[in-house]
Design brief:
about 220 residues; alpha+beta; two-stranded antiparallel ribbon; 11 strands; globular
Length: about 220
């Protein structure tokens, strides 16, 4: 039984260990000298550089704390940005960005300092941040506010049997109260973990065997 659980958890553990690796290599070199990310990481004694990222120091890839994507010739928000949801500080300045689509920072609940080109507004609007300042050609958004504690009425109120939780700048999610779950938190009772785990394990093993067989056939093809 323990081996089956480990088999199910292994892909998740591997994903967690490699999370953020790709986004750290979007630009060459370490965080730029003098950038807000560089200053933040140098002020802490428990970080190490990983490409354009700084992480908590550890034997395995530690939690991503800062990401410097300044002067990376970005014309749009890179899809890999979603790998950096644990970031506390992020720099997107000196890029020809024209917009920050809604949802670009979904899941960035730890983000406390974000620097963007002056032409762009802070994600979620100025009401999503405690402090918004202008510094030369950049705009600095600091201290993310909890939209669930705001006096402004939410666009999509959470349904009954659920609570509001922050999900990024100006973004919220609705989490079901225990023991409710499912669509709009209408189902009551314990979530069927055993059934879910069995289905997930079967699907994972089946997909792995399919990919393995496909690779073998390709390898045998002259």
């Amino acid at each position: 039984m323990g081996g089956c659980v480990l088999l199910l958890l292994l892909p998740l553990l591997l994903l967690r260990a490699t999370r953020g690796v790709a986004v750290c290599g979007l630009c060459p070199g370490p965080p730029r000298n003098g950038s807000i990310v560089s200053r933040f990481c140098e002020s802490r004694g428990d970080t190490e550089s990983d490409g354009r990222c700084c992480r908590e120091r550890g034997l395995s890839p530690g939690r991503l704390l800062g990401l410097d994507l300044s002067n990376c010739s970005l014309h749009s928000v890179p899809p890999g940005l979603a790998e950096a949801t644990t970031a506390i500080i992020l720099d997107l300045t000196e890029n020809p960005l024209t917009t920050l689509p809604n949802g670009s920072f979904l899941g960035f609940i730890h983000l406390q300092s974000l620097a963007v080109p002056l032409a762009l507004e802070c994600p979620g609007g100025s009401d999503a941040w405690q402090d918004v300042t202008v510094d030369g050609s950049s705009r600095l958004c600091q201290e993310q506010r909890n939209p669930c504690n705001s006096s402004v009425e939410l666009a999509w109120p959470c349904p009954e049997n659920s609570v509001c939780a922050p999900d990024g700048p100006g973004l919220v999610q609705c989490l079901c109260d225990n023991p409710f779950h499912g669509y709009k938190c209408l189902r009551e009772g314990t979530f069927p973990m055993l059934l879910f785990g069995g289905i997930l394990g079967t699907a994972t093993v089946s997909l792995s065997l399919l990919l393995w067989g496909t690779q073998r056939r390709k390898a045998k093809t002259p």
